[in-house]
Amino acid sequence: MTTTTLPTASEAAPAATPSGAGKDAAAIRLSAAGLIRSEWIKLRSVRSTVWSYALLVAFSLGLAAIMSGSLDLQGADVSMVPAANQAIFVAQASTFGVFFGQLIVAVLGVLTISGEYSTGMIRSTLAAVPNRLPALWAKAAVLFVATFLVGLVSTVGSYLVSSAVLSGKGLHASLFDPAVLFPVLGGALYLGLIAVFALGIGTIVRSGAGGIAVVLGIVLLVPIVLQMIPAAWATSLLPYLVSNAGINMFGLMSFSQVPIEWWVDLLVVLGWLAAGLAGAAVLLKRRDA
Question: Does pLDDT of 2 surpass 80?
């Protein structure tokens, strides 16, 4: 009598081909929408983000109120002040907070990436995105858009505050006056760009304290040091520093002896940003997490 051996379930079942599942998993990992959504969740779920953006708005509104309230016309006839000069002062009061806000968003840009390195979350991020660079681009895009929008809220809110205070002193300017609108938009744009630049520095340094020190040194200390050097070459370099070009970009202060167009200042800021992101991309691909 012949005994027939039945195949086991594992032998009978055809071997699963992982190619299809692997492709699906790769598609999920490399989905641009998924990366953007993931980076947005990480950005808004961190306390430092909420505090940084809240401080940015609070400082901007407070400084706008202080600058507007401190204006002393000394009995001058406001009706004799040209409308263009009134618009310039309203724009200066509306964007005064950008001078300090750039420091806040620069710190936030560093913390956005250094926090992942300190907690080890960067390993999960890079495991989900083996190519690595799409994760950096998604993080930069989310940070820029969020910072630009919050910066716009702060500059527009500062305009409303300063306009209300200055109108009581007889100074008026519409938000849609080009002399006001362009600085308001330019200030928000610069805040978004400097945050992404700081993200690149943070990715290079991979340390919260170290990255903040480097960024604040570039944004704050280097301009002060160059201004103290009594040499022509130091004066010539001032317009090409990222913070000086960014502030001059919205037309309220000039660090050059010759007028520089706003688009040239924008190119200078973009050059600094591109250098920071390029260094971050190269090191992110080469180094271990």
Answer: no
pTM, two decimals, is 0.87
Rounded to whole angstroms, the Cα distance separating 174 from 184 reads 12
